[in-house]
Amino acid sequence: MNVSEGHLTQQYLLDYLTIFDNIEESYDHLVLQNMFLYRMSVDGGFHARVVSSILNHEEDRGLLLSLLSDCAEADNAKASLKEWLTSSYAAADGKRKEVLACLLRSHISGTNKTAELFAESETKIPESIWRTKSRAAVIDKIKNSDMYFGAGRRPFWHAFPLDLAAAHLAGVKELSADVIYDAVVCVAGAWFSTLSEEEMIIWLNMPRVTPEEWEKIVRPLLDIADPTPAVSAADWLYASGNYDAALDLYANITLAYAGSEAEKPAFEMMGEILTEFKDFDNAFESYKNAFLLCSKTDKYAIAEGLKNLCITGDDLGEDMQEYYARITRLADELPTDKRCMLYLSFSAAMRKRRNYANEYRWIEEIVGTEDCPEEIFSAAMNRLSEMNIYLDYSGNPDTEKLSAADSAVEAALAVEKGDFAYFGFDPVCALFWYNRAASAAPELKDRILPKMFSAAVAAGLVSDAAGYARGTPALEAVVHAQDTDEFALAVNAVNKAVTASLSRGIESAAAVIYPAFLFLSEEKRRSAAEQILESRSTRDDERSRVSLALGSVYLDLGMISAARSMLRAALRANPGSEIRSRILIELAWMESEEGEYKQAVETYRLALKQNERFPAAWAGIAKASIRMGEFEAALSAAKEAVLLNPAEDSYRHMKEALEIVCTEPKSETADKLFCLPGAENTAYAAVLYAEASGKDAVSAWSAESTADVLAFRV
Prior knowledge:
mainly alpha; 72% helix
């Protein structure tokens, strides 16, 4: 994607970069901007809501369509955002170049942490402390703020709903989904950067898109002559677990595009969803409608349609033998690959219904077919091997054992879909999948329960959350914490949870404190901490361990000063050497992150006096020494860390990079970044080396390994 004077992407860039002009005044806005970009990348409903707003606003609509047209006319139409930013970086200078470097490093690392990286470049304070400050800036303003710091990921399997619609309106249907996505984000990001903080927070606090809202959002898709955008949106909704919205859109597709190629697959998807809902009567009608649209000359489509009718008829308890016989006759007339595909489809349907005898029969048909396509044959053999593990004494599939194994697989998949939905800001959908997982494998319910609880809390389903919490103090504490009148109950519940968790470790204690504290005001957090500590013994490590856990929680909440005070209180409680060393490491980390590198090294060494075989302390010394440019001392510490924990990649990376730097330093800034782990640091170090030596700095942004960096280090 070319960037030239007056090009819309250039204008977006100029608009966006203005918020970096005064870091002290705009940092909170930067944090909110990052959160917006993150949610745009993982929340399909939010993304669709934003795109819908753009398309309904004359000026923004014009900007987006113009940008898409520019992309289509560019020499490199499939350019990624990284390539676009790189070309912009090459043409920039001064402060703008630094900002673009931060944008690129953020993109390389796969996160939206531009604000943190830029704040580091301006203040020389490490970006991790700015990330902590980010949490503090939003934790009391943003509902379900933890979702913004979660493990979300962009759903690449389909273009986002409405993205293709924009491309169709611009007349550039040939553009890739990623290019369209980048164009949408450009316009959306520029618009969001113009909002006030209050307006930004309103947008970030918007709840999930409901099925009813989905209906309004996708309705304009049905007015486009080409059904592709509507089908893509319906497929996305189905894949992301929004079955109600998907079903409604597929139904509308059958009406809006009657007689088109989209009608038959839409009816089939309706049948699949209705089967998931156990609505077999309507599923049968949907499959029948799809079957009636089959071409009389397409024998495979006819056989597949009959298969759907047969299986759904079985679900209804109907006698479908005549239809099965017809399928058998049709199968004999099909080419080998089509016949094997049909058999595999049958076997999958039988497995889903736990009809293992018939599944086994269909798989044997595949295995016994000459010239079966390799891919289908391998899938059949793999499944046959699985089933052979669970044969009874008669040589027949053991239904009970096979069912248990398949249920475990289905439960794991449902949990994965639930996690995806949860960190995609759709807790209602997540709850659906978690409940499905618990139903598939009841023995896993206790492990899934905290996820179900978190989803219910995020969805505002208080009564459901209270039900999941019953009997579990840590969860009960969260329920009580949301009601200002139940503060005392919340504290008591947290205290019970802490007592129960201490035997499992400090991390466990922190994990049960954090969720409840998230819903308390800062004042009540401090009050709750005091009450929890009052009941703790001073005769052993208990008070220190609880103080350490509370300090970790404060740090996660962005309460840096309170965290430091709590950790120092933990030291005053006279802990044993193991706990003392852990407290000192936490304090040292904070000192290092705030730029107090010499003090951090001293504190790390105090920790090592308690336990000299603590690899994290040696790694901490190495990182602080790197920041000070003391590479020899850093190398010595890194060697100790690797010796104690050779499996840790970050330690090994530091050691190898430091061995190179200590041989012949080339550039203090680049050397520091080169020695610190992280893909974004590796690439930026390569760029700095390249610029210092007159090499191609643009290509240096692609550096991913030590070897790549060395290509630019002369």
